[in-house]
Design brief:
The radius of gyration is 27 Å and the shape is globular. It is built from 22 helices and 20 strands. Helix content is 33%, strand content 19%. InterPro entries: Fig4-like, SAC_dom.
């Protein structure tokens, strides 16, 4: 049309002042009759880029950005003024925010999802991680009118809004929150090394977010389909994870060490507790969450080292663990609460879906996979024990064909039985955690790729819900990992941390919040059994809290889960509206939204053998990368070892590859900007310093070490 062409011409006439890439952190949305304009700027709002979203009559989108243009504030003001004069109906500001999540369509036109409010929750290597507090859904259609009452559009819009994007969704402008720190550091080092070696194939390898944890992948799909250069999509649209992020400062006599917990929930086979159990035909399990524990010494803020260069700061460590439902086909009937019977719906002698699941774990983490199974082994009326026997058979079958070094390692502990008999569940879990960490190791960044220690393999924990018992076990594994991380960084003399010390108390709080958040997302209530329950402390208050949360969980499962499941299926694109297709709210269940037909399944048609169920390449690739780092051995080093390496080895500085945007300094230390200390995230971060006494007297002695127990009866042990 004439109007759209005049808009395009006005845009192109603006002079080219520069050709830099900037990190967009502020977004203003303008709409007109034929085009939506999104004006993005850096955090100081003095450098701008413009994206046009065109609307064709057939409903298709065209997304354009002239990457050769870079605007000043005056350019943008002039451009908006010219558009107001030349475009029929003018341009109108319809939104302002901090990020773009993507575009979605129900029955008619598209909506743009805009982050309008966010808050800082963590900082890693100088890059902030944000929690999404509020969002806005903006119609792309300029002549949009409110949907008719009881129309499909109105109902789908209402279902979409049942998923509260202002709770436990996270993003970052410059940090890849979808991948582990190990993946990021190794990937960036290898790419920089490839450029230095003039290896064009590896140097040009595309940057990839972990799609499994990108919860707005469905909203991004129309964007990728409408642009010429998919690599530039994430300049404008932020990948979003669902889960939990928390960070705390360990104050070690004034030295700052940050603990960061990042829980990433998979968007595959996602949903509410009794509606999503077990595994689907694609090998995705319910309630799958990857939890990463990053411990870093803030001697240097950045991932880069002043002496050794690009991503070679040796003061960063990371440990990853995994939780997920038992990978068998099983369900529970919601109509038979509070303890629905467990039914194994499909007995597959070849365990095809479980094989897909474990093969995917090999792909992501390498071998071995350590399975910590916490379900009940003996019951008067078999419920959980039904699954126990079937799961043991599954592991036994799959292990027949694996090489010795990659076999699935299964450990069982009936936590409920031991706890109810008044026994100690902490001691056996401590022993399991110690063995697990010594088997897989953990990531410790090095001054070069060769001096980097990798975590090889994963600890996979499950109970029935993968909530209460699983969270307690993950905390104990995390506590032991923390002791090794601090030992490796040189802050403690041995990898042991006593309970009731400041550092363990703050980690307990973090895992408690972590467990509560995961439980609310999946079960609809907070944790029923906490670490206090298993450690048998504060018994009266703990039991009261447990009963109340148990009742809340039953209520949520009975009345709210179906609504939440519909919202999740719509948001994730499991259900897409089509004329003549069964409506979302008319489906008897959502089984076929998450499972393939057996005969149409790609996995079924491409499977070569029930014996060679795993991909040998996944084990070989993990071994190759592992061999490049630290000579292929697990190595738990102390700080003195690292210093000795630095003195002994002549390690050249690694330079970044071309095109890498190093913005951490300006993001952390904003230039020419006055900031009150009360507004600085690091100043307000949770810290072990809050355990210190507010007043001191001459007769009062206090040990400021965060590694000493605060219980007098344990101090001499």
């Amino acid at each position: 049309s004439d109007a759209s062409s005049s808009e395009s011409e006005t845009h192109r006439e603006t002079p080219n002042y520069n050709n830099k890439k900037i990190v967009l952190q502020r977004f203003t949305v303008y709409n007109s009759m034929h085009t939506m304009y999104v004006i993005g700027s850096n955090s100081r709002e003095n450098l701008f880029r413009i994206m046009e979203i065109g609307k064709a009559q057939n409903g298709a989108l065209t997304i354009l950005e002239d990457t050769n243009f870079f605007y000043t504030r005056k350019d943008v003001i002039d451009l908006i003024g010219e558009l107001n004069k030349s475009v029929q109906g003018g341009v109108h500001r319809v939104g302002h925010g901090h990020g773009l999540l993507g575009l979605i369509r129900f029955t008619k036109g598209y909506y743009l999802s805009l982050i309008t409010k966010c808050s800082q929750v963590a900082i890693l290597g100088g890059h902030y991680v944000y929690h999404i507090d509020e969002t806005q859904l903006i119609p792309v259609d300029f002549l949009y009118s409110k949907p008719r009452k009881h129309s499909d559009e109105e109902r789908l819009l209402a279902i979409f809004r049942n998923l509260d994007l202002g709770k436990t969704f996270y993003f970052s402008y410059t940090y890849d929150i979808t991948n582990s720190l190990q993946t990021i550091c190794v990937r960036e080092k290898m790419r920089a090394m490839a450029h230095a070696a003039r290896d064009a194939a590896r140097d040009d390898a595309p940057f990839a977010h972990n799609e499994r944890f990108v919860w707005n992948a469905h909203l991004l799909s129309p964007v990728f389909a409408s642009v010429d250069d998919p690599a530039r999509v994430h300049d404008w649209f932020q990948p979003m994870i669902h889960g939990f992020v928390d960070q705390a400062n360990i104050s070690i006599f004034g030295r700052k060490v940050y603990i960061t917990l990042i829980a990433r929930r998979s968007h595959h086979f996602a949903g509410a507790r009794f509606l999503k159990r077990g595994v689907n035909s694609r090998g995705d399990v319910a309630n799958e969450v990857e939890t990463e524990q990053i411990v870093c010494d803030q001697l240097h803020t950045s991932f880069h080292d002043p002496k050794y260069g690009f991503y070679n700061n040796p003061r960063f460590t990371s440990f990853v663990q995994h939780r997920g439902s038992i990978p068998l086909f099983w369900t529970q009937d919601m109509l038979k609460l509070p303890k629905p019977p467990i039914e194994v719906n499909l007995s597959d002698p070849f365990y095809r879906s479980a094989a897909l699941h474990f093969n995917n774990l090999f792909q992501r983490y390498g071998a071995p996979v350590l399975i910590l199974n916490l379900i009940k082994t003996k019951e008067k009326m078999p419920r959980e024990s039904k699954l126990f026997g079937e799961f043991v058979k599954c592991i036994g079958y799959l292990n027949q064909f694996l090489p010795l070094t990659a076999k699935l390692k299964h450990t069982s502990l009936d936590m409920s039985r031991v706890s109810k008999k008044g026994g100690d569940v902490i001691t056996p879990l401590e022993a399991i955690a110690e063995k697990s960490i010594r088997t897989t190791g953990f990531f410790h960044n090095g001054i070069s790729l060769e001096r980097t220690s990798l975590q090889k393999g994963i600890n996979r924990t499950n109970c029935i819900d993968c909530l209460d018992r699983t969270n307690a076990a993950e905390f104990i594994i995390g506590k032991n990992a923390l002791s090794y991380q601090l030992y490796t960084l040189g802050f403690i003399a041995a990898p042991k941390l006593p309970y009731d010390s400041d550092v363990v108390n703050i980690l307990t709080e973090m895992f408690h919040d972590h467990g509560d958040t995961i439980a609310l997302q999946y079960g609809g209530s907070h944790l029923v059994n906490t670490m206090d329950s298993y450690r048998k402390i504060n018994q009266w208050s703990s039991h009261t809290r447990d009963y109340i949360n148990s009742i809340k969980r039953i209520y949520s499962n009975s009345f709210m889960d179906s609504l939440r499941q519909e919202a999740i299926n719509l948001f994730l694109g499991n259900y897409v509206y089509e004329v003549g297709k069964t409506k979302l709210w008319e489906l008897a269940n959502d089984f076929w939204l998450h499972n393939d037909s057996v005969w149409m399944s790609k996995n079924f048609r491409t499977r070569n053998s029930y014996i060679h169920w795993y991909n040998e390449r996944y084990l070989e690739e993990a071994g190759t990368v592992f061999a490049l780092c630290n000579s292929g051995k697990h190595c738990i080093k102390t700080r003195s070892d690292t210093d000795a390496d630095s003195a002994r080895l002549l390690v050249p500085m690694l330079e970044p590859y071309p095109g890498y945007i190093n913005t951490w300094w300006n993001e952390t230390y904003v230039p020419r900007n006055f900031t009150s200390m009360e507004d600085v995230y690091q100043f307000n971060m949770n810290s072990t310093a809050r355990y210190f006494p507010t007043q001191m007297t001459e007769s009062f002695e206090f040990d400021f070490s965060p590694f000493e127990t605060r219980k007098p009866e344990l101090q001499n042990e």
